[in-house]
Amino acid sequence: MDLAAEHVTVRFGGLVAIDDVSIAISPGEVLGLIGPNGAGKTTLVNVLAGFQAIARGSLRLGERSMAGSPASSFARSGIVRSFQSVRLFRGMTLSENVEVGFVSRGSGRQQARERALSLLKELNLHHKAHHPANALSYGEERRAGLARALALEPRFLLLDEPAAGLAAAEAEELRQTILALRDRYGCGILVIEHNMALVMSLCDRVHVIGSGKTIAIGTPEAVRADQAVRAAYLGGKELG
Ligand SMILES: Nc1ncnc2c1ncn2[C@@H]1O[C@H](COP(=O)(O)OP(=O)(O)OP(=O)(O)O)[C@@H](O)[C@H]1O
């Protein structure tokens, strides 16, 4: 069951932020969404997560039309979006932050606690489980954001620049974590990311947009070699 936007257009007043774009994510794949600043990446992810109304086009999860449904209905269907800045509940422990997600999906308190601890272990954060959420390092906070998103049991996980601000070693750790989570949970993962080395090594496919339009869709190798991508996206420079 794919999550797909077809021929979608989004306008902000007179500005066409997304112009007839079709994008699809399949379960179990990691799809990169790249493009220069202002290309429309965040807007497109907001469309897929149900946070942004569309002027034209369609949106579906499998056979089910999602356009016009409230954001809560996207979340209930397993479409989970993470934000660039992690919004943890600061007055709670890390574990409690994750438990909230499991409880919202119907787990009892005890089960939520067990599942939170097991997830934190997978993300190499169990040593911080009972620390206040405001006592995490930057890298830990980013992984905590991932834990929070995973506690919502996503079928599709939409990640907005998960590696922003991470050092190379932390970005590599994040890459391995994302792939392990994909393999374990089988969810489709869309990643907006400016770190090209990470995009090229993490993604099964890459969707490139510029000025609200699709420039190319393909494997990392195909996209890296694409003349239109080089010209429009990087002014002819080598990608990655
Ligand atoms: N709420 C809004 N109101 C008006 N214009 C908006 C709004 N959100 C985005 N835009 C405009 O739409 C275009 C696409 O923005 P968007 O944030 O989706 O791009 P992006 O590719 O995510 O950029 P970045 O890489 O800088 O985050 C930009 O021209 C932006 O200024």
Automatic annotation (TrEMBL):
Please list the residue ranges annotated as the ABC transporter domain.
Answer: 3-236
Q: Which PROSITE patterns match?
A: ABC_TRANSPORTER_2 (PS50893)
Query: Mind listing the UniProt keywords for this protein, alphabetically?
Result: ATP-binding, Nucleotide-binding, Transport
The GO terms this record gives for MF are:
ATP binding; ATP hydrolysis activity
In the UniProt record, does the keyword Cell division occur?
Answer: no
Q: Which InterPro entries match?
A: AAA+_ATPase (IPR003593), ABC_AA/LPS_Transport (IPR051120), ABC_transporter-like_ATP-bd (IPR003439), BCA_ABC_TP_C (IPR032823), P-loop_NTPase (IPR027417)
Keyword check for Nucleotide-binding: yes
Q: Name one GO cellular component term.
A: plasma membrane
Enumerate the SMART domains for this protein: AAA
Q: What is this protein called?
A: ABC transporter ATP-binding protein
Q: Which organism is it from?
A: Pseudaminobacter soli
